[in-house]
Structure formats: structure tokens, C-alpha cells
Amino acid sequence: MSNAATLPGSPSERLRQLLNWRNSVAWLVLVFTLLVQLVILQHLRSHEARTAATQFEFAVEKTTEAINKRLIEHEQILFGAAGLFETSGLVSREQWHQYNKRLQLIERYPGIQGVGFAQAVLPQQRDDHVRAVREEGFADYDIHPAGARPLYIPIVYLEPFTDRNLAAFGYDMFSEPVRHHAMATAAQTGQTRLTGKVTLRQETHGEVQAGLLMYVPVYRQSAPLHSAEQRMEALLGFVYSPYRVGDLMRGILGAADPALSLRIYAGPNEDSDALIFSSRSQPRDAAPLYGQTLRMQLYGQTWTLRLESLPEFEAFFHGNDALVIGLGLGLSLLLFFLISSLSLRRSRAEALAQQMTEHIRENKRALQLSEERLSLAFKGSNDGFWDLNLEAQTLYASPRAWHMLGYQPGELSSDLKLWERVLAADDLQQAKAQLAQTMLSAVDHFTTELRFQHKSGKLVPMLVRGYIQRDRNGQALRISGTSMDLTEHKRIEQMKDEFVSTVSHELRTPLTSISGALGLITGGVMGTIPAAMQQMLEIAHRNSLRLGHLINDLLDMEKIAAGKMAFDMREHSLRRLLEEALSSNQALAVHLGVNCTLRTPPEAHVWVDALRLQQVLSNFISNAIKYTPEGGEVTLHCELVGDHVRINVSDQGPGIPLDFQSRVFEKFAQADASDSRQKGGSGLGLAISKEFIERMGGRVGFESRAGQGTTFWCELPLLEPQSAPLTESDALRLLVVEDEPDTGRLLLLMLRDAGYEVERVQSLHAAREKLASKRYQAMTLDMHLPDGSGRELIDEIRSNAATRDMPIIVVSAASRFESREQDAGITWLHKPINAAQLLIALTDALAGRR
Ligand code: ADP
User: Fold this and answer.
1) Beta carbons within 10 angstroms of residue 373's beta carbon
2) How many domains in the chain?
3) Does the CB atom of residue 649 touch ligand 1 within 6 A?
4) Pocket lining: 709 vs ligand 1, CB cutoff 6 Å
């Protein structure tokens, strides 16, 4: 239960659950995945660093190679120009122009400022030189800077001869120390030389860039060039190219990797004065990840190159770190929460399972307790318990239920049909029919007495109570209930009945003598006796008669209970019966001063045992007379209710008290205990009346209002009015022999509706009379009739030539005791029957006869 409270919760509760030891697997996984990520990241980084370094080195190589290559190309250009001088001796300004035009310098070699020729002029040649150039049309030409120097090397030709280049025309490069150094070395060695950092003469406007010059010495033809002096001697001048380093490098690096920064120092150190080129003017905030300083030997110069990676370069290789870390962390956390959720869910499920187990345990305990109580209750009641599951087709019976029949549990195979095997064979059909009827009805409880076959062979009477479980359509699914052994109960009842019967019989004989003798004495047969004695003897006589009545009632009751009472059912005129009943009570009425009248009864016939009906009517009438005050009136009147007649006996007595009304028809019931003394009576009369009337197919009842008298009534089925005798025609006339009023009526209606002419009787005796007087095409027969078995009638019919072939439809609730039946003319139908069944059987039977 406590776990249930800690299931889903607030954020803090969730946090607590995450930190719970149950979640340790998730934590372990988190730590492990983070470690794995760290290793992977490390590996990735070193791999990236290696790639980046390789890439950087490659870029460096590419850059230096590009610079080298371009300078060699420039040298080649100058070599070409030098070759021009060496082959033709002196080159004219026009030739120079043509040569350079052909080279397409500006388009092909970005960064080159031009290609020029500077002529070596000795002081003694100076004037001639200036004059000669001026004569070419350059009137302002002069060697500058001015001043006397041992050797002048002024710029004579410079192509393209436009723009910035014009400023350099006539400039003596030998006068400037940096140029001087490069020129002198070039001239002396006969090799191409580069200057250090200079400012070009061309820097006349705009941004000033560092400048460089490349010199290729040109010597006079055929002069000896073996030593430095000879070379200086033979020097004609220099072909050269001035470069603005910024432009030159941009031209070279245009195609190179832009992700690197490059600084070039014209010298062996990274000396800021010597800086001739920088690809990046803005200084970087952070130190670069990759950097390299290298030195290049170029035409007599040592250059220091500083290459550094740019952020773009670094980002290209290391930019994924954040992504990798982010993704990794995300995945780890996802895994962590996933496992947490799984393990927490599992622990939640465990908590739930525990809770459910607890619940089940509690239920089990409660069930055990309830079973214990139930079994104790059954033990206490000594009843058996059984359960028929119609769906599962199983039967369960408790050990006690088995013991009642002398079996051990499991001794007989328990299937659904078992109960039929252990039921008394004689009762089986009736019990089955009864059960079928109960199942088809809407009833859900039943109580019935059945006889079962004990293992020893004796019959065990049992009170069976059941409950029927039904589905929504009313179909029975399960029948469960109890069985109570009635053997002892029956035995005691029988003893009691026998006792009553014996005592009553033994009393009746002497009592008859006593009341006979007293009657004779009080009637004066023995002569007159003193008045005082006469009175006493009359009391004795009256009471002996009363005692006789009581004994008769007791005997009747006992006979009814034992089922020994036979009814002699016959057709009687209602009027005659009522007149008789009235006249036999007339004396009592007169005696008590009550007026008794019979209102004109209807002309009707009833099928009754006249003696028993007289007994009933007498009881009603005598009660009415007894309870009606002197001078009052008792009325007998009849009314027809459907196919019944109701006989009413109304009085003007005090009525029946409300609290007694429900018990009026019970044995020994009297509204007032003093009644027996005041009115004389046993309280058995009405109970016996009810029993008699019901046996004759009727019912009893009463209406009473306090102070306004009572009406007792009994209803009896009317006999069908006799139809006129029919001629022997082919009319389909049928006879229905059925004592049970409802079934009889039903059969009559069904057959009449189908167009047959039908007559109905309720006894063997009446059937015999009918069969003797008329011819019937077929008959229906109930085997259990008040005056005997249907079997007798069948035998009679078959032995009579006139009726031998008549089809008989037996409508019975009884077993098919004639299983040996060979008679093809007999069709068996079992109650309850329906119209279709009946008519089909009848049509078949009639067709078979023809
Ligand atoms: P009893 O032999 O005592 O008359 P019954 O069975 O005939 O026995 O009647 C039972 C009881 O019903 C009577 O004792 C009486 O209390 C009541 N009872 C019967 N008939 C009447 C009636 N007509 N008016 C009032 N009470 C009656």
C-alpha cells in the first residue's frame, strides 16, 4: 500500500526516484556512454589534428612552390630580354617595346610592374648618353639623382612606358644602396639577383607597397667573362623587373588556399622592418592552431615566410567538436532517461504487482472465510449442495449430497445426466417435464420433492431447492441448490398420520354406539325421562355428534394427506346439488333462526364427486348460518365466469378479521379460540373444502368486510353443453379425455380452431359413455384420470371391433411405460404440447388409418 503512495509524483519526487538505487543501471549506462564518448572524441580530435596538420603542410608547400615557380617565370622573361641584347648587340626602344608587347605582361603576370633595361654608363659616357636619349625625343631626360658617381646605371627602357613607370625613367638605380648591392652581385656573378626591400620609384601615389627588383646582367658580346672584374668590365647593363610585392603575391596566391595567412620578410628574421607582404592586415585575437616559419633562398636573398592557419581553416577541421559533444551528450541523456523510465516503470509495475498480490491474498482470505462459513452452514443444516453448469456441461455435488445416496464423492461419473440416473425411475418423466417447464418459464427459484434411488436400493425422499441463473434472453445457464433428506421427516409424519388414523378409527366405533344410544334415549324411544336428565342427555348427545364430526374431519384430512382419497367424478346438475345442500342445512337454519335462500341457479352441469361437493357446500352454509345473527339471512347464488361457475354463500355475520384472513384455509385455523366452544367446530372444515374443490379442478376463496358479512365461494369447471347426436357422417369428430382443466381446455381450443368437432370428458367413466353412444375419428387421452388409468381404456377400445382402428394420441406427463407398445395407432405426446405438434400428430395418425 505504501508503494502506491510513491508512484507518480511531483518533480522532486521524480528526482528522488532518479537518484534511487533502483535506477543505478541507468547511472552506470550514463557514465559508461560518457566515457566512450570521451574516448571517441579524443580519437576524432587527434585524427582531425593529423589531417589538419597534413593539410596545412600541403598548403605551405603549395604556397612556397607557387612563389618559386612565379619567380622562375619572371626570371625566364628577363632571360629572354637579356638574350635579345646578347644576340643583336644594341636593342632599340622600338624593339624593346615590341618585345614586351608580345609578352603580354600585365595580363599574364599580375604583380609585375614592368620589364626594363638600365644601361651601364661610365662618367665619361654620361653626356653622350643623355644627348642620345634626348635625341630620341625625350628632351627632359637626365640621369637622376644628380651628382658624380663612378658608374651610372639609369633606367633607359621600361615597358609599359606609361603611368607610374614614367617616374622611373632615367633613374640611376646604382645610386641607391639596396639596388646597388643586388646589381653589383648580379654583375659580378653573372647570375640573377633580387634586391631586399625597397620603395619603388613608381610609388608616386596611392597605397605604398613594399618593392622588389630582379636583375639579370647583360654583357657586351664576345667580351671575356671569366672573373668578376672581367664581368664588371663587360657589363652593358641590366634587364630587370620591378615588383610591387603586394600585387605580386596576390597574383601568385590568387589560386592558393585562402584559409592561411602569409607574412613574408625579406631577410632571415621576422623583423617588422623587413616585412614585405602580409596577407592579413587585421591581427588575430587568438593564437593560430597551426603555424610554420620557413626560409627560402631566392636569387641571393633569404626570405622568411610565416604561414598561419586562419579560423576558417581550423573550423573546417575542428568545427564538429561542439556538434559531436552535443549529439553524444544528447544520446547519453536520452539513453539515461530511457533506461530510468524502464527501470522505474518496472519498479512501479513491481509495486503494483505487490499491491495486487496483497489484494488477491485478502480476497483469498475473505473467500476462505466465506467458504468456511458456507461449509459450516451446510454442515449445520446437514443439507447437500449441487451445481449443474449447463454451459460447461458439468455437475458438482458436495460430499454430503453423495452420502445421502450412499455413494462416495467421485464414485459415480458426474455428468449432466447423472441426476436422471439416481432419480427414482417412476418419477423421472414427471421430474423431467417439471424441470423443462421451470426452465422455460421465467421462474428463478424452485422447491420440489423428489425421490432418489439410494445405492442400497431404497428410495430417499428429498426436498430439492434450486436457483436458476439465466442469460439476458432468459436462457438457463446454471442451476444450483441444496437437497435435504426427508426420510426422517416423512417417517415421523407417517407415524403421526397413522396414529391419528388409528386413534380416530378406534374412537369412531364406540362413539357411534354412544351417540346412537343417546339419540335413541333423547328421542324418547326408551320412554319419558325426567326433564333434568333429558337436558343432560341432550348435551351429551350433541357433544358426541360434534366429536364424531371432528373425527370424520380428521380422517378426511389424513386421507387427503396420504393421497388415499378417491373421487367419484360424475356429471351432475348444479341446481340439484345446490338444492340438496340447502335442504340438508335447513334444520340448523331453523334452529338458529336464520333464513336460508337459494337464488335461481343457472341450468348447468358440473363434473364432480357429489358427496364431496355436498360436504364443501354444507361447510360453507353451516358456517354462514352459525355466524349470522338470529333473524339474519344466508344466500346461495351462482354466477358464470367464463367456462366456470362460481357458487357463492353469503351471510350477514361479523366478517372475518383482517389479521386472520390469510390463514382461513389453513388446518385447525380459527379466528377466535373460543369459536370451537361457542359455534362448535375444529378449524378443519375450510381446509378440507379447499382440498376437495381443488381436487375436482376448481378453486375456493372468500370476500369479507368487517361488520358486513362474508361470502365464501368455490369455482368449478362447467361441462360442455351436450351437442346433438350426430349421424354417421364423415365429419371429423374427436374426443378429448383429459381431467386437468387447463390442458383440457387448451386441447379443445386447438382442435376446434383447426376445424374439428370436439367433445371433452374428464374421466374414464364419461369416456366410456361417449364411445358407446357415438363414433369418433380419433381421441386424445390422458393416462392419469381420476377414476383409473388410460391403459384400461386403450385395452377396451382395441378389443371392441367398432373402435379397434381408432387413432389415439396420448398426451401425458407420465413416463412411456408402454415401451413394449406395439400399437401403431398410438402416438405419444408429452406435456407441454403446442398446437403444431398436436395437429401434425393428428393428421399423421388419421392418414395412417386410411
Ligand atoms: P370450523 O369447524 O371451526 O368452523 P372452519 O374451517 O369451517 O372450521 O372455519 C375456520 C374458521 O373460519 C372459523 O373458526 C371462523 O373463525 C372462520 N369462519 C368460517 N366461516 C366464517 C363465516 N361465515 N363468518 C365468519 N367467520 C368464519
Assistant:
1) 10
2) 4
3) no
4) no
